[in-house]
Amino acid sequence: MHTPARPTPLPTPSTDPLRESMATTAPLAHAPQPECRQLALNALCLREPAAKVAAVHALWARIDTLALHTDTPLQPLAHAVPGRPDRPPLRSAKAVPNRSVFTPQGMAAMVHAVCHIEFNAINLALDAVWRFASMPSAYYRDWLRVAHEEATHFGLLQAHLQAHGHAYGDFDAHDGLWAMCEKTATDVLARMALVPRTLEARGLDATPLIQAKLQRANTPEALAVVGILDIILRDEVGHVAIGNHWYRWLCAQRGLDPEAHYPSLVAQYDAPHLKPPFNDAARLRAGFSAQELAALHKTATAPPPM
Known about the structure:
1% strand, globular, two-stranded parallel sheet, single chain, 306 residues, mainly alpha, Ferritin
């Protein structure tokens, strides 16, 4: 399987975000050293994006020194999950206006929309770490790496917005990714099937289309965003591959055929009806089989169920 290049971990800030985040939820009394899943939950509960990003990077930088209690049930104590800032206002997807990259305001709104997706993706990865116990240690490391890379993406987009007079929170946003996270909160197999390999995989399809519009705009700002999206697309192939790996692993543990079981999960959890075009090359690199892609194209051309 193709393994995308990974960003270099950022240096730990002079303050200790891990220590600061320990106040968010009660620490485990029996843990003699900071515990990985608890710290992921603490970071998830942080409301300010800068604090969350710093905590995630610090957590990844110290991953090899942290304890890991895979069988310990955890509960968020201080705040609702996930921690979010007061802005952006959240609307239904249909209530968020279309964004044109051919005007300065439309460009900023489009970058903000992707920035919001990356902020949600940080939360999704952290939630996968703390919520689901009794998985192999490699599972938790995989999803902490995803959180670290999503935090890097968020930082790139936030810096771009700030360089052009905006910030995360300036535009309305929607909450579709987290809604599916809540639906699948009790079943890690459904989570792997419907968040990384369904909703996040949609980003593999959408990113080249956005880049094509930006290239038509052909301004220095538009081309700078194309470069950021190159990094995001590269890493997202790996994130979807992680979802595919653990979905197939869980199906094997339960004696299920992953490709035959997937449509029943889509129906049970009312997952979105995916529409073409599809980025077949990126999906193959991310671990989808040729048979899955053929089925995806077939169902996409059929009318959605009533």
